Amino acid sequence: MNQRQTLVVIGGGAxxxxxxxxxxxxxxxxxxxxxxKTTKLLSKVRVSGGGRCNVTxxxxxxxxxxxxxxxxxxxxxxxxxxxxxxxxxxxFEARGIELHTEAxxxxxxxxxxxxxxxxxxxxxxxRWNIRIQTQTEVVEILPHENSFQLQLHDGKTLHANAVIVxxxxxxxxxxxxxxxxxxxxxxxxxxxxxxxxxPKNPITELMGVSVPKAEVKIRSTKLHSSGPLLVTHWGxxxxxxxxxxxxxARDLANLQYDFQAQISWIPDLDVEDVFAYFLxxxxxxxxxxxxxxxxxxxxxxxxxxxVRKSGLQETERWADLSHTRMRKxxxxxxxxxxxxxxxxxxxxxxxxxxxxxxxxxxxxxxxxKRCKNLFFAGEILDIDGVTGGFNFQAAWTTxxxxxxxxxxxxxxxxxx
Length: 416
Ligand SMILES: Cc1cc2nc3c(=O)[nH]c(=O)nc-3n(C[C@H](O)[C@H](O)[C@H](O)COP(=O)(O)OP(=O)(O)OC[C@H]3O[C@@H](n4cnc5c(N)ncnc54)[C@H](O)[C@@H]3O)c2cc1C
Known about the structure:
Radius of gyration: 25 Å
CATH architecture of the largest domain: 3-Layer(bba) Sandwich
Shape: elongated
Low-confidence stretches: none
Mean pLDDT: 96
Distance between the termini: 20 Å
Bound molecules: flavin-adenine dinucleotide
């Protein structure tokens, strides 16, 4: 870009700051303005990861990384080959922030404080003289031949040679109305990453009980996921449920969050395997009570709950159980069914599925195919990841590519 060109970045979140900082840094002749409609900057960064900011995930193979995105994985494949987890780490390390990895692959600043990330982005924005305006909402974008006129909420206008839209996800489609004049297709937004409500279900009395691996299947759909499962005071949560809610965000919205979830408490065994195991136990320990035979590594409270759910009593002895009753119990362990009625927002991390339709974006540049010099990055796009740092990684990657494109320098990762 030529001297004194203006780049306006719309939205003061992770993607907006990353795009603005890198745009200004890679092309110091660019005048960069960042507009944020609220009074707060980087508010999601601050609350993210329970106040620790799960910056990214220790997954270093682009082909593997894309598998964590229910929407956008295919489009991100090439983008991740240019800027992914190692680049994110290098970018923050170059600014004095080391990341550490937890056993499940999530990466946090070693301070375990999201303020470290927010501070770094604010300092960098200051260093590169980015002009930040809070309480400034863009209500309309008017594309002209080689520039844009941005209509602000207070009636003022702003001129821009290039615009990067990083306005995040919106619960309602009307949240995308400010883009109407640019002619983009918006995929209906629905929430992703939520937990399942089981109102008045007796299992909620086990709140706090968890299993390291369960399988969740959503009946009447093809959805299934596995991983740790947690019983809460309102229903079911944990990675297995969150994954199902992410991959099924649209299907479950269509079902109006009213469906049946089938839980396999020991996913490696089917009903017949569990039944065969019960037969062997009855043979070996006929006089032992079933309540004292906790198996498969299940928590004893859950074991007793499942015994009772099958119509048995924990005081009954193996020798007294018929095949029919044992089979029913095996079915409860291997294919336990719950009526889900509603969802609850997962406080650690939630995102919007839907947003700007991906076929309208050139992922080599993050430029709109409809509107020259208009770029998109972050959650405003129809991209979302499962929980674990993937949503921020998509924000860093798309913002990086948009910034490199605007600066006219290509996407050379040496520029980190
Ligand atoms: C509680 C919570 C915890 C999370 N934790 C994690 C985590 O640990 N790891 C992870 O990977 N992801 C996490 N996420 C998801 C992650 O925070 C988001 O995916 C990410 O912040 C998206 O960044 P963004 O810049 O695209 O959008 P946002 O962070 O949403 O920023 C968009 C900004 O644009 C502003 N804006 C919107 N419209 C306009 C307009 N018209 N004019 C001007 N400004 C506008 C908004 O006010 C907002 O400040 C979490 C989400 C939540 C809600």
